[in-house]
Amino acid sequence: MQSTDLLELLKRPEGKTLEFKKDLSSKSHDSLARTICAFANTAGGHIVFGIEDKTKYIKGVPNIQVLEETIVNIIDTYISPKIIPDIDFLPFEEKLILAVRIYPNSPLRPYYLTGKGKGLKNGTYIRIGSSNRVADPKSIEELQKMGKHLSFEEEPLIELDAKVIDFDAMTRCFSSVRKLKYEDLFSFKLLTKIQGKIVPTNAGMILFGKNRTEYFPKAQIKAVRFSGIVRDPNHKVIDQKTIDSYPIIAVQEAVDFVQKHANYESEVNKGQHAESWNIQRVERWNIPMTAIREAITNAVVHSDYSQNFSEVHLFMYQDRIEIQSPGLLLFGLTVEDIVRGISKLRNPIMGNIFNKLGLIEQYGSGINEIIRECQKYGLKEPKFEEIDTQFRVTIYTSPEQTPSLDEQDNEIVDILRYQFFSNKEEGLSTKEITERANLSQRTVRKHLLALVQSGFVIEIAKNATDPKKKYFLREEYAKIPVFIANNKVREALEDLTKSGLLEDKERIKRIEAILKYPAEPIPPEWHWKKDGWSGNVNCFAFASGLAKLKSYRDKLIHAYNDYHKFASSLFLKDYLINRDIKELDYPGENCIVLYLDQNENINHAGIVKETLSITVESKWGNWPVIFKHKLRNIPSSYGSIVKFYPPIDAQDAYAFFESWSK
Fold it and tell me: How far apart are CA 41 and CA 120, in angstroms?
């Protein structure tokens, strides 16, 4: 592990795979053994010593070799089978931190504590959230099966015969895909042979068993519509339904229940012509139904049917929809894993059937589809969490409310956001923030304290008065996703074209208010001044992908005392001509955007971060709408000619600059 990895751990809260400890007292040996055992059984993780768990102040470990030896002895004495962790010493300024990494997915699971009153039954621990829990018999059984690569789905129901499978219903489900044969029941593992007898598997009974609820009474969906935002006697139940159809059919019935209590609305979008708008009517549900369907499908396919203690819950409130299924994430998985697209199927037979029917597009893609659909609707990011022994997806149905920040908060957040994109691993001190902001150090301290308490900013320090204290913008606030409908694009462009008398600073504020995306501050050394107006001097270094090449910037500053002279030079145009790089009709991500005057001199340049597929025609020419690129690079004159070029190779451009500058 590197020091940079330690910084990443310090930015995270304690949870399923992370625990901080200031030290290790003699009374906490048993507690440490439980945590190591729980990590090994669940999803692995890090235990970091020398960090206060509440404040996360970095205290360090005074006798680090002694601590290492103690930890090894605890593992050898308390835990069976044997665990071999990674133990690293990490320097942080003048202190040393000790990090223990426990790996998951061992075939030796379950791990358990030995000694009086412990053993496999009472000493097996699993990790739920930030706590360690004694595993119940079903969880122990699942751990054992995973170690032996056994599947609950494939287990035979030897007391039954093949007649219990509703082949006609299955045939109807597959009618639009292909014609089924009886032999498919075996290839799909819905039937199996045991001692010459054909019997259904658990998967066969759950999916198409004629009397499935007799054997799996909780293999159903309980749908409820509440009147308020909480479940209590003061908020009555408006509607409820128990859906016990075959799972493939039940998914659609659950979606129908949601649609019954949703609105199908029309939205009038103006067309793409700025002067003569075409009226277009767009109709859609007021709730992202694609996300709802994905969440319900995931709940059905990933439910732990072996426990048979709870059904899938579909609860609708005024402000959200909760879809909850029995069973934690498979041991070895975390919420962070599934958001990254890492997937393990608890029920591979059921997953295969859903995939064949087109109800699952690609394994691991469902969670990201849910997130994307909620973003398109401008909703708060959905929440994924393990609660007790269940997994819950919360889809919010009200537009996201941006947390309230005042002007001084925003100035500090903008500085930290720029730092995040410039050098994610390097935070800023109070002094460094003060130097970049038009605020006093006292004001900066006051607002930083509030931003840390509200969760916007992360503080990493040895103590409250640490002079080397660093601040980082929390990643989710640095990368706020932005989605706007076509009519919002029109409004933004209208506002831009009408604001010609506004000063540039005021125009930028107006753009930010409409697009809900803050412009990033530009470092003072990247500015040139002409007639009191400040612009981006390093636009070409940025546009050609060279902003991170310090030697290039140094040569630029050394060679051109007049920044504006370089900004209007022929370097970039020479490069494009020399390399025969053609213009693009419409830009994509990382493409270059140039703003030129009527004489083809370059005024501004930028790099396209994201685009929206719409072109607006106006009296100034065609405007492909550029989304999420540097808003401060928007030209001050709307007579600019806008051209786009494909991304430039940084090393190639650097070599060209070397020869060109000579």
Answer: 12
Look at strands 79-80 and 131-134 and give their pairing.
unpaired
Bridge-based pairing of strands 112-113 and 610-618 is unpaired
* Residue 430, φ and ψ in degrees, nearest 5: -60, -40
Residue 165, burial from CB neighbour count under 10 angstroms (0-12, 13-18, 19+) = buried
Query: How many other CB atoms are found less than 10 A from the CB of residue 116?
Result: 5
Write out the two tokens for 176: 């639009």
Starting at the edge strand that comes first in sequence, how are the strands of the sheet with 18-21 ordered?
Answer: 18-21, 45-49, 95-102, 86-92
Whether 250 has a pLDDT exceeding 90, the answer reads yes
Q: Regarding beta strands 237-243 and 18-21, do their DSSP bridges make them parallel or antiparallel, or are they unpaired? A: unpaired
In sequence order, what are the residues at sequence separation of 6 or more whose Cβ sits closer than 8 angstroms to the Cβ of residue 98? 48, 49, 50, 61, 64, 67, 68, 71, 87, 88, 89, 90
Measure the CA–CA gap between 221 and 349, rounded to whole angstroms.
20
State how far the Cα of 259 lies from the Cα of 289, in Å rounded to an integer: 8
Q: How many CB atoms lie within 10 A of CB 387?
A: 11
Residue with tokens 């006292």: 442
d(CA 41, CA 102): 10
User: Among the listed ranges 12-26, 314-328, 451-465, 473-487, which one has the minimum average pLDDT value?
Assistant: 473-487
Order of strands across the sheet that contains 237-243 = 237-243, 221-226, 312-316, 320-326, 390-396, 383-387
pLDDT tens digit sequence for 178-233: 899 999 999 999 999 887 789 999 999 999 999 998 999 999 999 999 988 877 66
| Residue 96 to residue 49: CA distance in whole angstroms | 9
Per-position b or e across 298-324, b if 16+ CB within 10 A of its CB: bbbbbbbbbbeebbbbbbbbeebbbbb
Q: How confident is the model at residue 403 (pLDDT cuts 50, 70, 90)?
A: low
- Where do we find the tokens 């004694």? 134
Helix residue ranges, H only, 79-150:
119-123, 137-148
Collapse the DSSP code of 157 into the 3-class scheme (helix H, G, I; strand E, B; otherwise coil) and give the result: coil
Answer yes or no: pTM beyond 0.70. no
What is the C-alpha separation between 217 and 311, in angstroms, rounded? 8
- C-beta of residue 447 within 8 angstroms of C-beta of residue 412: yes
Q: With 60 as the cut, is the pLDDT of residue 534 above it?
A: no
Secondary structure (DSSP) of 273-326: BSSSPPEEEEEEESS-HHHHHHHHHHHHHH--TTT-S--EEEEE-SSEEEEEEE
Tokens of 562: 């007049």
Helix (H, G, I), strand (E, B) or coil at 58: strand
Q: DSSP secondary-structure letter at 96? A: E
Strands 390-396 and 191-194: unpaired
From CA 344, how far away is CA 43, in angstroms rounded? Answer: 13
Q: What is the DSSP letter of 235?
A: S
Dihedral of CA atoms 559, 565, 567, 569 in degrees, nearest 10, equals -90
Q: What is the rounded distance in angstroms from the CA atom of residue 574 to the CA atom of residue 572?
A: 5
DSSP 564-582: HHHHTSSHHHHHHHHTTPP
Phi, psi for residue 541 in degrees, rounded to 5: -60, -40
Both ends of the chain: CA-CA distance in Å? 45
Label residues 622-646 b or e (16+ Cβ within 10 Å = b).
ebbbbbebbbbbbeeeeebbbbbbe
Tell me the sheet residues that pair with 385. 392
